[in-house]
């Protein structure tokens, strides 16, 4: 008498709602982690520097305000990195923000803003 053996893979129903983990999904998550950590830090550091140079306060107050604001910028960038459905939009937005702030910082140094 022959016995029929059903393996767990062949007989188990597929779980609905869970997409299979592919290399593309892993690359997407890794890209978002790098964008949130690295580019978030770059944007936050540039925001702190720009605010410290351009705020119309004393040097100490402007630096403190810029540093405190940079924590909110960094948190916002990290949240946005995982909140946006498209990773390329996160990278484009963070690169554009860092380019604008780097330009503003360079311009304030070149024109002799508050030092």
Give the SSE map.
Blueprint: H1 8-11, H2 23-54, H3 59-83, H4 87-110
Helix pairs in contact: 2-3, 2-4, 3-4
Structural class: mainly alpha
Residues in helix, %? over 70%
| Helix and strand run | HHHH
The averaged pLDDT comes out at 88
Based on CA atoms alone, the radius of gyration comes out at 24 Å
Contiguous low-pLDDT stretches (5 residues minimum) are none
The overall strand count is 0
The major pleated sheet works out as:
none
State the distance separating the first and last CA atoms.
91 Å
Indicate the overall shape: elongated
Distinct helical segment count: 4
In terms of DSSP E residues, the strand content is under 5%
Structural commentary:
The chain is mainly α and 115 residues long. It has a domain at 37-115. It contains four helices and no strands. The model has no long low-confidence stretch (mean pLDDT 88).
Brief characterization of the structure:
With 115 residues, this protein is mainly α.
């Amino acid at each position: 008498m022959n016995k029929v053996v059903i393996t767990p893979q062949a007989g188990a129903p597929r779980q609905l709602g869970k997409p299979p983990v592919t290399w593309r999904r892993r690359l997407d998550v890794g890209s978002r982690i790098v964008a949130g950590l690295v580019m978030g830090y770059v944007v936050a550091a540039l925001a702190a520097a720009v605010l410290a140079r351009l705020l119309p306060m004393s040097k100490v107050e402007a630096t403190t305000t810029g540093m405190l604001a940079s924590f909110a910028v960094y948190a916002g960038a990290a949240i946005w990195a995982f909140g946006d459905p498209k990773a390329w939009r996160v990278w484009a937005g963070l690169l554009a923000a860092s380019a604008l702030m780097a330009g503003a910082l360079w311009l304030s140094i070149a024109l002799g803003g508050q030092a």
